[in-house]
Design a protein that fits this description.
alpha/beta, Metallo-beta-lactamase, Chain A, six-stranded mixed beta sheet, 26% helix
Length: 205
């Protein structure tokens, strides 16, 4: 799996492009705003884009969904528990003082658990609620995409609708901290980290 990260938008979200080099197939994880550079890269590299996957439904992680879908006509995966959060995108835009990207319509449910395949790449789904009810982390081959659950030396905020501090702490301990210490954590914002490092150094634990 080849990974390319695009840090973008007013929230500086990490949008990931995961590419299966066997066939040059790929999918996008958490498309923020300002997707022009990412689209240009995909076209230049002739990547066959197959899906959009979002770890949760907050505006900073889904703002670019419609732009990507309009260009590539591919399915958008999001857990069904995030439905109300996605519907509140216009209110989120007003609250944060950013442009309203419209409400993207999920095409397929991203399950809370189990195994799933995108572009020929296999992942294990980990339900990591607390930042939002339907937050999902994706684990594969020594890498976990943690969305806004776990950050480098921090955790996701829990003061937004659907947030729950105790739930988030429990989810991180029971779903993420049980992964091998060397697992690379690719966060929704900020630099990458590792499970072992966060278990020892994260001030929330």
């Amino acid at each position: 799996m080849k990974l390319v990260v695009f840090e973008n938008g007013p929230f500086m979200v990490n949008t990931y492009l995961a590419v299966n080099e066997n066939g040059n197939r790929g999918f996008i994880l958490d498309p923020g705003s300002e997707m022009e550079q990412l689209i240009e890269f995909i076209l230049k590299e002739k990547i066959s884009l197959e899906a959009i996957v979002c770890t949760h439904g907050h505006i900073d992680h889904v703002a670019g969904v419609s732009q990507i879908k309009n260009k590539f006509d591919i399915p958008f995966y999001l857990n069904d528990l995030e439905e109300e959060i996605v519907k509140s995108i216009p209110a989120q835009a007003r609250m944060f003082g950013v442009p309203d990207p419209g409400v993207p319509r999920p095409d397929k449910n991203l399950p809370l658990s189990g195994d799933i395949e995108f572009a020929g790449l296999n992942f294990t789904l980990l339900h990591t609620p607390g930042h939002s009810m339907g937050s999902i982390s994706l684990y594969s081959d020594g890498v976990v995409f943690s969305g806004d659950a776990l950050f480098n030396m921090s955790i996701g905020r829990t003061d937004l609708p659907g947030g729950n501090y105790d739930q988030l702490i429990t989810a991180i301990k029971e779903k993420l901290f049980v992964l091998p210490d060397e697992t690379q954590v690719l966060c929704g914002h900020g630099p990458a980290t590792a499970i072992g490092y966060e278990k020892k150094m994260n001030p929330f634990f």
